[in-house]
């Protein structure tokens, strides 16, 4: 396994971040190069560390996403914030050729960040609940139904496979540096974030 460099938006030769990724056949999924790629993606996500990674972020135009939101990542976050964001630990998911459908179209507003846009975050609207179907790393069908933060991560990662980054639609007026986020917004509740979003985007 290897840790691979994560493409950074705005750098040269990162067009793949804005291009659609390719659907994989079952034979391709089970092939040595794709199995190796999945292993490398896991190592790269853990090393970053991040809660999700899509193959285009390491320059591979394939429809593969991996997600894991470890409980240990939550230790520095207050219970109130975790509860507001509906964020719970999520075990490792490897989803290939994901198809996303919306279950609850109501939107949640929270700051969101990306390993490919690593110095900033913006308030990003996301559907509250989604269903994702696809194949796992053994090319077997899987289905995931998610709410809250897990639903947000799924929408973020599936967007990557369609060449879409959160900064393509999250309002720039709500942008904060990571330092600003930590000092001003880390403990903000949903109402405060919504009020700021609405005031910023009027
Ligand atoms: Zn991302």
> Roughly how many Å is the radius of gyration?
17 Å
- Total beta-strand segments: 6
Strand content: 25-35%
Give the cofactors and ligands. zinc ion
Poorly predicted residue ranges: none
What is the N-to-C succession of helices and strands? HHEEHEEEHEHH
> What characterizes the major β-sheet?
6 strands, antiparallel
The gross shape turns out to be: globular
Return the average pLDDT rounded to an integer.
97
Please report the distance between the alpha carbons of the first and last residues: 48 Å
Share of helical residues: 25-40%
Q: Any overview of this molecule?
A:
With 202 residues, the chain is of the alpha+beta class. It contains six helices and six strands, in the order ααββαβββαβαα. Strands 1, 2, 3, 4, 5 and 6 form a six-stranded antiparallel sheet that branches. The longest helix is centred in the first third of the chain and has 16 residues, at 32-47. The chain is globular, with a radius of gyration of 17 Å. Bound molecules: zinc ion. The site of zinc ion (ZN) has 5 residues, from α4.
Task: Briefly characterize the structure.
The protein is an alpha+beta fold.
Provide the fold topology:
Layout: H1 26-30, H2 32-47, E1 52-54, E2 64-69, H3 79-84, E3 90-114, E4 117-135, E5 141-147, H4 148-161, E6 176-177, H5 178-185, H6 190-200
Antiparallel strand pairs: 1-2, 2-3, 3-4, 4-5, 4-6
Bound molecules: zinc ion.
Zinc ion is lined by residues 114-116, 156, 160.
